[in-house]
Amino acid sequence: QVQLVESGGGVVQAGDSLKLSCAVSGGTFSSYAMAWFHQAPGKEREFAAGITFSGAGSKYADSVKGRFTISRDNAKNTVTLQMNSLKPEDTAVYYCAVDYRRYANYIPMDQREYGDWGQGTQVTVSS
Question: How far apart are the C-alpha atoms of 112 and 127, rounded to whole Å?
Fold first, then answer.
């Protein structure tokens, strides 16, 4: 198992940018696909973006495509989510998650396929 710690959340205005980071310890980070999910108030947690173990592949929810970019640094055991052109509807708690299937060139969008989660970081976008 790994430990995941998110950081970088905050309160911003619509149109601003924010960068989230997830520091991962334990396990073999470079072999796991990683993802960011978000959970808005009163809603279920939803997939936002994911990246393969190598970083060569990525996937985005339609709601964030073109605005968010996921990346990873396997030397530093971190995964980041660059969020641009933020909208009030992006307001949510953002969670980092790990898929323990090693070296899989597949990015699940179902949260049930992820094995561990961080504690979450709040992003609030005001209009």
Answer: 33
Say how many Å lie between the first and final Cα of the chain, rounded: 39
Q: What is the pLDDT of residues 64-86, one digit of tens each?
A: 999 999 999 999 999 999 999 99
Residue 38 has pLDDT above 90, yes or no: yes
pLDDT band at 1 (very low <50, low <70, confident <90, very high): confident
Would you say the C-alpha torsion 110, 23, 15, 93 has a positive or negative sign?
Answer: positive
29, 39, 15, 23: which is closest to 122 by C-alpha? 39
Burial class (CB in 10 A: 0-12, 13-18, 19+), 74: middle
CA distances from 117 to 38, 55, 65, 69 (A): 12, 19, 23, 20
Tokens (6 digits) for 115 = 């094995």
Q: 119 falls in which pLDDT band (50, 70, 90)?
A: very high
- For the chain, how big is the Rg over CA atoms in Å? 13
